[in-house]
Write a structure and sequence with these properties.
The complex is a heterodimer of chains A (416) and B (95).
Chain A (H helix, E strand, L loop, with lengths): L4 H9 L17 E7 L3 H14 L4 E4 L15 E2 L9 H18 L10 E5 L2 H16 L5 E4 H7 L14 E5 L3 E2 L2 H14 L3 E3 L4 E7 L2 E7 L2 E10 L5 H6 L7 E13 L7 E3 L6 E4 L4 E12 L7 H14 L8 E12 L5 E4 L5 E5 L9 H14 L33
Helix pairs in contact in A: 2-6, 2-9, 3-9
Chain B lengths: L1 E4 L3 E4 L4 E5 L13 H10 L7 E7 L7 E7 L5 E6 H7 L5
Antiparallel strand pairs in B: 1-2, 3-4, 4-5, 5-6
Classes of the chains: A alpha/beta (416), B alpha+beta (95).
Chain lengths: 416, 95
């Protein structure tokens, strides 16, 4: 069923009795052309683009829980393409362009809201770095505007501009950045993939790979062995655990990242604001809650919950940036697992095992990458060659001395 | 998290900085034939287990000792704490 205004009118006039389940719940077949392991945002996007861009529909997505039960359901919903390095920025700009056409493409309301993102700067050095980043963005086809203090003050008068320690001097604004309704992204891609014939199989955890003579022939699951010519792993957060079944060690550590949301408030924050002197970012949801987060806790974790010291650190960042936030009460906080890689950048690549592909290492920036990640991963799986904008995101880049280190802190995952 | 320091007793984990997997103690031989590969693996690849994990913590706001903390990455429970010096000597890395 195609969703449209006419459809809503028709259903409304006929008692809403015509709505159908959004996707099927098929039994797994014994063999597929391609299996995508992981039914999160990236996995579902991969399946969608395999079907829509490459015509491959003999595809199954295996998900251990329910669709979208991982990080796509627990992030802070920010989309942006304000990266610096040539190995990253064209990829994230492709993602931004795909976000802009996503709802029409998948025929699903994902509430893509381009309200802009502002990265603040607090010193002359930071302003120069922001200008350089803005120029790098423009060169890659993105948009960037350097705001001085007066221009920023007109947009966000409530920031603590005259903070004694970190006065706010301005910000780098990407008007096309913003937020997207995260769950709807998973649901939209799932529905789009299902309509094109992809089998979405939930409650089906992968427990091993069928690897013989260095070739992957399928996966072992809770529901038996399923054969496949190509197996595409897409389980960021648990990458180490799943790829361990194939005997591979990765340049990745699993960490916990916390996020927070306050009670609903009247509209106060126009887009996304990130603090330049600490790690804090905030936006306001359509329901009015302030959605904010900060740094990862810093130690390896698979617990999906963090500790209080980081809660304090994030709230301190919020108070230093915009003291009015102290009047809001936090309603909920939660944690998610993130793949922290050795240079803070992701991987979309083949593995040494033939027929086994890997997508992961998204650090805490995987949500914004969802469309391009799926698009480039599908390209790699379907054509055997990396997509040009993801050509640097290889597993062997450290061996080649070709790390994509945006922050420049080296092989220390908890500092990226 | 509370880390039971072998010399100072229980201390809040906030006093510490974590470096990462305790296998970083086992620095490869730089004169080995395949030293480039060994150092790549040493520096970049991780076991990243879900469960018991041995890791290096530095008591930055305390006595500045290095510790090997055995901790569960599933529950954050600290299971064992040793001085990294003792661990390194036991592994023959006392230079």
């Amino acid at each position: 069923m195609r969703y449209s205004v006419l459809q809503i009118l028709r259903q409304g006039l006929t008692g809403n009795r015509g709505w159908k389940p959004v996707w099927r719940e098929p039994e797994p077949k014994r063999h597929y052309d391609t299996i995508v392991v992981g039914g999160g945002g990236h996995g579902l996007a991969t399946a969608y683009y395999l079907a829509s861009a490459h015509g491959l529909t003999d595809v199954a997505v295996l998900e251990k829980g329910w669709l979208g039960s991982g990080n796509v359901g627990r992030n802070t919903t920010i989309v942006r393409s304000n990266y610096l390095l040539p190995g990253n920025e064209p990829f994230y700009e492709l993602s931004m362009k795909l976000w802009e056409g996503l709802e029409q493409d998948v025929n699903y309301n994902a509430m893509v809201s381009q309200r802009g993102i502002i990265n603040l700067y607090h010193s002359d050095g930071q302003r120069d770095a922001a200008a350089r980043r803005g120029n790098a963005m423009i060169l890659a086809g993105a948009d960037a505007v350097l705001l001085d203090r007066e221009a920023l003050q007109r947009k966000c008068p409530y920031l603590d501009f005259d903070n004694e320690r970190f006065p706010i001097k301005g910000g780098l604004w990407q008007p096309r950045g913003g937020t997207v309704r995260h769950d709807a992204v998973a649901w939209g891609y799932a529905r789009g993939a299902d309509r094109r014939g992809v089998d979405l199989i939930q409650n089906c955890e992968v427990t091993g790979f069928d690897i013989r003579n260095g070739v992957c022939h399928g996966v072992e699951t809770q529901r038996g062995t399923i054969g496949a010519d190509r197996v595409a792993v897409c389980v960021a957060g648990s990458s180490g655990r799943v790829m361990g079944y194939a005997g591979l060690r990765l340049p990745i550590e699993s960490h916990v990242l916390q996020a927070f949301v306050t009670e609903g408030l009247k509209p106060a924050i126009p887009g996304v604001i990130t603090y330049g002197a600490g790690h804090f970012y905030v936006s306001q949801s359509d329901k009015g809650g302030l959605v904010f987060g900060g740094d990862i806790d810093g130690y390896n974790s698979y617990a999906q919950r963090g500790n209080l010291p980081m809660v304090e650190d994030v709230c301190e960042g919020g108070m230093a940036l915009m003291p009015m936030i102290g009047r809001a009460r936090v309603l909920r906080m939660w944690g998610g697992l993130v793949d922290m890689s050795m240079d803070g950048s992701p991987f979309i690549d083949k593995t040494p095992v033939e027929g086994l592909y890997f997508n992961g290492g998204w650090n805490y920036g995987g949500f914004k990458a969802t469309p391009a990640s799926g698009y480039c991963y599908a390209h790699l799986i379907a054509t055997g060659a990396p997509h040009p904008v993801a050509a640097e995101m290889r597993l062997d880049r450290f061996e080649r001395g070709a790390a994509i280190d945006e922050k420049g802190v080296g092989a220390q995952p908890n500092l990226h | 998290m509370i880390i039971d320091h072998p010399l100072l007793g229980p201390r809040d984990a906030q006093e510490f900085a974590i470096l990462g997997d305790a296998s970083l103690i086992d620095r490869p031989d730089w004169q080995a034939e395949d030293a480039a590969k060994l150092f790549h693996d040493y520096l970049h690849l991780r076991d990243n287990p879900a469960g018991e994990h041995r890791e290096l913590w530095f008591h930055e706001q305390g006595d500045r000792s290095w510790l090997v903390v055995t901790r569960s990455t599933l529950t954050h429970e600290v299971l064992k704490v040793e001085l990294a010096r003792d661990v390194a000597i036991a592994r023959g890395r006392d230079r």
